[in-house]
Structure formats: C-alpha cells, structure tokens
Amino acid sequence: MPHAEGLPIPTRMTSGSSGCDICAAIDDDAIIAPGARALIPTGFCFEIPEGYEVQVRPRSGLALKHGITVLNTPGTIDADYRGEVKVILINLSDQPFTVARGDRIAQLVPASVAGNVSFCESNEISETSRGAGGFGHTGYSSST
C-alpha cells in the first residue's frame, strides 16, 4: 500500500524464527497511554492461500521491556480477507509508549487450518482421563 513505501516486507529476523516481524506504517508517532489501546496500520494486505491463516502475535521484547502486547492474541487474518492488516496494541505498563514509523510492532505466523470442520449437537461425549479438568487442573509447583 502507498503508506508502506520504504518499509520492509514482513521478514523473519533469523532462519529459525517462526514469525515474520511487521512494522508500523504511520506518519506521525502514536502515543499509547497506560491502559490504552491503539489500532496501528501496517500498510500491507495479503492474499493467503485457502486452508491457511496468518496469526498476529506479540513481540516478546515489547511485552517484557514495555508491557506492550497485541490485544486479541493471536489475531487471525483469514484467507478471504483482502483489507489492510492493522494491529491492535495495548499498553499494560504504567508508562506511555511511543510507536514510530517503521517500529516492529508484531509478528505474523502463517498456519494451516483444518478444513471442512463443522459443529453438531450431541447428548453424549466420550470420556478421557483428563475429563473436564482445566485451568490449572494439573496443580501448581513453585519450581516451574
């Protein structure tokens, strides 16, 4: 898109990276106040093959150092979406955070999607050893 001119296309920063970093395509700095969120344009749209999605995930360095994360993690870019990818950032810190043009704001992870899935009603469900256990059902250990 025109407002992405001069910005790198989403890129894996190392050969072992799962995600491709994507940058902010903004002209003026965006200041995200503590507890606030902002929709940051990237200047890119994608044609994703049927049977795939692209997940939008936070960058760990932004999360650790600044408390900045992607609000609807992971965000999903569907194969039939053709609009601009925009990233919802939220500031979970107690300090304002500035996003500048070209800042790496998120990572994109391509993933395959199971096809032809449908849901149906049933009065029965199979049993497993886990059963309905969830949300910490395996316990808590202070050493992990």
Written description of the protein model:
With 144 residues, this protein is mainly beta. The chain has one domain (2-112): Distorted Sandwich (Deoxyuridine 5'-Triphosphate Nucleotidohydrolase, Chain A). It has one helix and nine strands.
Broad CATH class:
Mainly Beta
Q: Order of strands side by side in the largest beta sheet?
A: 1-9-4-6
CATH topology label: Deoxyuridine 5'-Triphosphate Nucleotidohydrolase, Chain A
The total of helices stands at 1
| CATH architectural type | Distorted Sandwich
Spans of at least 5 consecutive residues whose pLDDT stays below 50 are: none
Query: Can you identify the CATH superfamily?
Result: Deoxyuridine triphosphatase (dUTPase)
* Cα-to-Cα separation, first versus last residue: 45 Å
Overall morphology: globular
Strand-residue fraction?
25-35%
Tally of strands: 9
Count of domain modules: 1
Mean pLDDT: 93
Helix and strand string, N-terminal first? EEEEHEEEEE
Produce a short descriptive summary:
This protein has one helix at residues 60-66; strands at 20-23, 30-32, 37-41, 52-57, 68-70, 75-77, 86-91, 97-99, 104-112.
From the structure above, extract its key features.
144 residues, mainly beta, Deoxyuridine 5'-Triphosphate Nucleotidohydrolase, Chain A, 4-stranded antiparallel beta sheet, 3-stranded antiparallel beta sheet, 1 helix, globular
SSE layout and pairing:
Layout (H helix, E strand, L loop, with lengths): L19 E4 L6 E3 L4 E5 L10 E6 L2 H7 L1 E3 L4 E3 L8 E6 L5 E3 L4 E9 L32
Antiparallel strand pairs: 1-9, 2-8, 3-7, 4-6, 4-9, 5-7
